[in-house]
Amino acid sequence: MAAKTHRVLPGFGLALGYTLVYLSLLILLPLGGMVLKASELGFGQIIDIALSERSLAAFRVTFGASLIAALINGFFGLIVAWILVRYPFPGKRFVDALVDLPFALPTAVAGITLATLYAGNGWLGRYIEPLGFKVAYTPWGIVVALTFITLPFVVRTLQPVIEDIETEVEEAAASLGASRWQTFVKVIFPAIFPALLTGFALAFARAVGEYGSVIFIAGNLPLISEITPLLIISKLEQYDVLGATALAVVMLGLSFILLLAVNVLQWWTANRHKNNEPLEVTAAKAGGVA
Amino acid sequence: MSSFRKSVSALLLSLVASAALADATLLNASYDVARDVYKDFNPMFQKYWKAKAGESLELKQSHGGSTKQVRAVADGLEADVVTMNQANDIEFLADKGLVAKDWAKKFPNNASPYTSAMVFIVRKGNPKAIKDWSDVAAPGVQMIIPHPKNTGNGRNTYLSAWAWALKQPGGNDQKAQEFLGKLLKNAPLFAAGGRDATTTFMQRKMGDVLITFESEAEMIAKEFGKGEFEVVYPSLTMQTEFPVALVEKVVDKKGTRKQAQAYLEYLWSKDGQENAAQNYLRPRDPELLKKYAAQFPAVKTFTVDEVFGGANKAFAVHFKDGGSFDQIYVQK
Amino acid sequence: MKSTRATQEPRWVRYTLLSVGLGFLFFFLGLPLVAVFVEALAQGLPVYLEALKEPETRSAIGLTVGIALAVLPFNIVFGVAAAWAIAKFDFKGKSLLITLIDLPFAVSPVVAGLIFILLFGAQGTFGPWLAEHDLKIIFAVPGMIIATLFITFPFIARELIPLMQSQGKDEEEAAVSLGASGWQMFWRVTLPNIKWGLLYGVILSNARAMGEFGAVSVVSGHIRGETNTLPLHVEILYNEYNAIGAFAAASILALLALVTLVAKTIVEWRMKKETEMLNTVLAPEKT
């Protein structure tokens, strides 16, 4: 972490130092301990555990469902964040507060409630199942649970950023003749895209690890609707702590790579669209196309 | 700020307060649904012990999944006694040196003060005429059970069906595994636990038969009403045991051996046995079993030791990775 | 009329977005919430209130709130420090650092609990040493606080980083070049700028701290009235066929989440009042 030539702002050393120490103590040390524990098994055995048919199927289900859930949240979360910041409507405060609910509700309660809603005789299931679409006790149930559990991420990372967009830029773009759509694509979207990616990545990461809600709605059939965390629990039920940590380490590695990829992409886009140029230029860019 | 301070001091108080009042404190680490049993049993024992030894005891309870609980005890949860619903969980503690190797001999009846049996719960009027295991495996029947590999309840069901298939004319392990394959095809899902299976069957109206502990049937009646279902006893089923043991390491450290030993022994007393019966668990006391005969119809049972040569062996053969359950799903 | 053309969407777009967004929230949030309360109130309000009066439920509520409060200052200090370093300065390995901060999200909560057992449990790395000194971390409140810290670790930092990035550093640089000290700059410029993000972060990490089940469940030991948090208590009640009690307790957690509504409203109202006061003071000079 090389220091740059000269910095105007103070506190870099203190802030970064504290961050690194705290991160090391609370996160890296425990995770390192876990990796060390798993390494007692030896590389070959870890690979065997990770590549068994059950594990592979579980990885597919877990990462696939998480990806779909994160995409759903990326799309709808953007809309929700937008209307919460920009549009007035009755009951807005209540709706705004509701967004945090998935975090506060214990995951088991979420799972039980969603399973009840989407079961064949549930409030939603009774209308969906006659259409030939089963949600509860299928992989789609997993997607629903994960969408619920990770819903706050995209909305809450976007909200402050949208609040922060200065309407002057939009007005300037408009005065230069940009249509609303052009303003959105050229001015607003680039500004919120990094946050959108962040929210997406966080939702995805959280979804991959989720256990408590999923097991109540997934059906848990081997090779079909078993998630990786369930396999970890299954190992623990066999008192096989080593096997459980091995699987956890593999999962952690995969999540780490995916998160790193998204974060690098995010950083790249953020830099590319960094508003170093004055407002007028951004506005003119949008307007210039018109 | 003041409310913050208040809750922090409340937090600290709650940490200190518990230790102060009693002469001794016992912690009983127990399985999930045992609360009702010990909620009534603990005050009875407190009274008994006060009269007998003149000590006032504080009794604390910890409930959770059986395997999770013993792992916690192995990792340092200072429970004086463990009261579980799977023998292999106590074996695990014995292996770790926390519980005596001959724990099953330290108390009567295999150290299990009461028992239960795996039974079928079917819908009112038994529309699919489910009488025995073969009916559950018949085409077009749906069975709701908790995950056979990850829950004690599901494992008991699996082993019950296996033992039944084994005892059929010409039965052997291979045929039993084939039968289990057929049976498991009728499971549209594996519930997260016993309670979740019940909710799925009773509230979400899925499946034709729910397989669970006899004692659960009464819990179900309590929540969903007696007229909603019928209990069917198959021709052979597992007698499930609820083994108890002293955690030697902890009682020695805390100096609570005397109290803990008396606590567990009291489970076999008339009061303890009657309490079990009132919680729909079959008492060991033959007189009480007779008294509550209406509640506990005769049923042909086997124990895991008889058919599978012990809980540990049954677990290793069927539920470890690569065991018979996995083989049914992954043909390799 | 023309000036609003580009700062506001056409009416049909607005209505479409509103109905899509609210529809999504209705199906994915509203219905589950209603279902929780329907279950909790299935036998009427008196039974609901009775369920909440149970001493074990009340001690669980106390413990849950206590842990959430204990975790909060750690998360705020870390979140602000990390966001300041990451958003306002350029250094190598930044994406890696952010990814490491995200990592706790990707760790399955059960595994998160497990790693602290591996460290502090009787068979763990520091277990024997802790036992020798009669220090209890696992199966006691400290362990539950540590597990909650782990689970909620990224929230505030992750909330603040994109916000502070989009704000840039012009304002702070201006403040410093005008002679403000580091702390003055922070209190007068940075903090007011990030207050919404910080608030969202606090609200989120709070909700998560109170609702966390998996990790805390592993390290708690489930001792009734002692180390049972509300989510753990919910599970136990449910397993005991006390659905009313379970959903009543869950509804309390939902209500605690809605407390954020009150908090946010108060903050907004105060700030509105402040700006109004400022405007009335400044108004004569302006005209």
From TrEMBL, chain A:
Quote the Pfam families the UniProt record gives: BPD_transp_1 (PF00528)
| Gene3D superfamilies xrefs | MetI-like
Q: One GO CC annotation, please?
A: plasma membrane
Q: Which domain of life is it from?
A: Bacteria
Under the heading SUPFAM superfamilies, the entry gives: MetI-like
CDD domains documented for this protein: TM_PBP2
Which parts pass through the membrane? 12-36, 57-83, 103-124, 136-155, 184-204, 211-232, 244-265
User: Keywords assigned by UniProt?
Assistant: Membrane, Sulfate transport, Transmembrane, Transmembrane helix, Transport
**What quaternary structure, including any partners, is listed in this protein's UniProt entry?**
The complex is composed of two ATP-binding proteins (CysA), two transmembrane proteins (CysT and CysW) and a solute-binding protein (CysP).
The record's comment on protein family reads: Belongs to the binding-protein-dependent transport system permease family. CysTW subfamily.
Task: Output this protein's name.
Answer: Sulfate transport system permease protein CysT
Q: Which organism is it from?
A: Dechloromonas denitrificans
From TrEMBL, chain B:
The places in or outside the cell where this protein is found are:
Periplasm
Check the record and name the Pfam families matching this protein.
Answer: SBP_bac_11 (PF13531)
Keywords, sorted A to Z: Periplasm, Signal, Transport
Top-rank taxon of the source lineage equals Bacteria
Signal among the record's keywords? yes
Question: Signal peptide location in the record?
Answer: 1-22
A single GO CC term for this protein reads: periplasmic space
Grouped into one coarse class, the protein's main location is: periplasm
Q: Which GO terms describe its biological process?
A: sulfate transmembrane transport
Q: Which Gene Ontology molecular-function terms are recorded?
A: molecular carrier activity
PANTHER family, sorted: SULFATE-BINDING PROTEIN
Matches recorded under NCBIfam families: 3a0106s03, PRK10752.1, PRK10852.1
Q: Which family does it belong to?
A: Belongs to the prokaryotic sulfate-binding protein family.
Name of the protein in question: Thiosulfate transporter subunit
Source taxonomy lineage? Bacteria, Pseudomonadati, Pseudomonadota, Betaproteobacteria, Rhodocyclales
UniProtKB/TrEMBL annotation, chain C:
Q: Which UniProt keywords apply?
A: Cell inner membrane, Cell membrane, Membrane, Sulfate transport, Transmembrane, Transmembrane helix, Transport
Membrane topology category: Multi-pass membrane protein
Output the PROSITE patterns linked to this UniProt entry. ABC_TM1 (PS50928)
Residues annotated as signal peptide? none
Name-wise, this protein is Sulfate transport system permease protein CysW
Membrane-spanning intervals of the chain = 12-40, 60-84, 96-122, 137-157, 198-223, 243-263
Ranges in a coiled coil: none
Its subunit composition reads: The complex is composed of two ATP-binding proteins (CysA), two transmembrane proteins (CysT and CysW) and a solute-binding protein (CysP).
**From what superkingdom does this record's organism come?**
Bacteria
Gene source species: Dechloromonas denitrificans
- Any one GO MF annotation of this record: ABC-type sulfate transporter activity
Q: Where does it live in the cell?
A: Cell inner membrane
Q: Please provide one cellular component term from the Gene Ontology annotations of this protein.
A: plasma membrane
UniProt xrefs under InterPro entries: CysW_permease (IPR011866), MetI-like (IPR000515), MetI-like_sf (IPR035906), Sulph_transpt2 (IPR005667)
Q: Say yes or no: keyword Translocase present.
A: no
